[in-house]
Amino acid sequence: MATINNVVRYCIIDNEAVTRLQLRATIYKLRPNYSCVGEADDLLGLSQCLAKCPNLLIVNSQLSDGTVYTVLKHDENRTPVIITSDYVECEEETQGLNKVAFSQKPVSQKEIEEMLCKFETMAWKR
């Protein structure tokens, strides 16, 4: 896993501030060595987060200005992504992405733990 001192750099993209706060707090509780290097609530912010070259993205599929799939499909780094959504049918649109996991909202602490474990397993295999 390409990290500095085993610190995973991640970004959270969700149009709901409370969801971003809850995700960040839960990840800190589960993985205090992970570092949140960016947050966004729209597609421009997602592009800006991608420019920071995080190790992991946690994104809500539906933002106020559109879906994240078009931006993610042009990510040359193929950043691993955990996708959350209010809509089950959105999972079909994730084909071709470097998807770690897909979860319907609300996401529980147990689900976050499972998704982070899956990410870590995938990252170490690289």
Detailed description of the structure:
The chain has 126 residues and is an alpha/beta fold. 34% of the residues lie in helices and 25% in strands. The strands form two sheets. Strands 2-1-3-6-7 form a five-stranded parallel beta sheet, with helices on both faces.
Number of E strands: 7
The count of helical stretches stands at 4
* Rg calculated over all Cα atoms: 13 Å
- Quaternary organisation: single chain
Overall structural class, as computed from helix and strand content, comes to alpha/beta
Describe the SSE topology.
Blueprint: E1 9-13, H1 17-30, E2 35-40, H2 43-50, E3 56-60, E4 62-63, E5 66-67, H3 69-72, E6 81-85, E7 99-104, H4 109-125
Parallel strand pairs: 1-2, 1-3, 3-6, 6-7
Antiparallel strand pairs: 4-5
Question: Outline of this structure?
Answer:
With 126 residues, the protein is α/β, with parallel strands linked by helices.
Main attributes?
alpha/beta, five-stranded parallel sheet, 126 residues, two-stranded antiparallel sheet
